[in-house]
Write a structure and sequence with these properties.
The structure holds 2 protein chains of 2 kinds.
Chain A: E1 4-7, E2 10-14, E3 19-25, E4 32-38, E5 45-51, E6 56-59, E7 62-67, E8 72-77, E9 86-94, E10 99-102, E11 106-111
Parallel strand pairs in A: 2-11
Antiparallel strand pairs in A: 1-3, 3-8, 4-5, 4-9, 6-7, 7-8, 9-10, 9-11
Chain B: E1 4-7, E2 10-13, E3 19-25, E4 31-37, E5 43-49, E6 56-57, E7 64-67, E8 73-78, E9 87-94, E10 102-103, E11 107-111
Parallel strand pairs in B: 2-11
Antiparallel strand pairs in B: 1-3, 3-8, 4-5, 4-9, 5-6, 7-8, 9-10, 9-11
Classes of the chains: A mainly beta, B mainly beta.
Chain lengths: 112, 112
């Protein structure tokens, strides 16, 4: 099955700096890579996703890049703000694409 | 639209008791999932369903059963609760493969 590794487990940045979270996956057939944000006590929410036919996707201050050769994808947050503080999860499909395997999460803290 | 609704939101069980967690979605999604979330371990898949009347095991199925008698509902049962099942349980739904999940608000279960 799919193995998804996520790094770092914790990340602290100053407000206005950029943050980068990286994930690697094992199944070369994987073709869909979502990122979720989970605020304390809340449900995970999809913030951006990328499909394997593109290398980069941007949505305002967040972007995701995909390197299929190296089997890794990254979340980039620019001009971080305190409300970006949360746990971020990456995921990749497994089981023929019927389900997602999640990384173990990155606790992002944006300090004033 | 309510999205994905989970009931109950909180529950305390004694070891050996049974209970059923209900997940309902009003988005006509084919796929539904049950995950558990434990500190430092991310989201782990318990069981999932790719359509009405179907179920399949995930990563950590032992001690749980599920049913999908109606397309909009996905039930998770604990027949004999154990302290190791203390966790936050999230239900999610998806239109199909290569689509992101919509999560419910979670059920915090404590087994004493």
């Amino acid at each position: 099955g799919e193995n998804v590794e996520q790094h770092p487990s914790t990340l602290s940045v100053q407000e206005g700096d950029s943050a980068v979270i990286k994930c690697t996956y094992s199944d070369s057939a994987s073709n869909y890579f979502p990122w979720y944000k989970q605020e304390l006590g809340k449900r995970p929410q999809l913030i951006i996703d990328i499909r394997s036919n593109v290398g980069e996707k941007k949505d305002q201050r967040i972007a995701v890049t995909l390197n299929k050769t190296a089997k890794h994808f990254s979340l980039h947050i620019t001009e971080t703000q305190p409300e970006d503080s949360a746990v971020y999860f990456c995921a990749a499909p497994t089981g023929g694409g019927n389900k997602l395997t999640f990384g173990t999460g990155t606790q992002l803290k944006v300090e004033l | 639209n309510a999205g994905v609704t989970q009931t109950p939101k909180f529950r305390v069980l004694k070891t050996g008791q049974s209970m059923t967690l209900l997940c309902a979605q009003d988005m006509n999604h084919e796929y539904m999932y049950w995950y558990r979330q434990d500190p430092g371990m991310g989201l782990r898949l318990i069981h999932y369903s790719v359509g009405e009347g179907t179920t399949a095991k995930g990563e950590v199925p032992d001690g749980y059963n599920v049913s999908r008698l109606k397309k909009q509902n996905f039930l998770l049962g604990l027949e004999s609760a154990a302290p190791s099942q203390t966790s936050v349980y999230f239900c999610a739904s998806s239109p199909g493969q290569v689509y992101g999940y919509t999560f419910g608000s979670g059920t915090r279960l404590t087994v004493v």
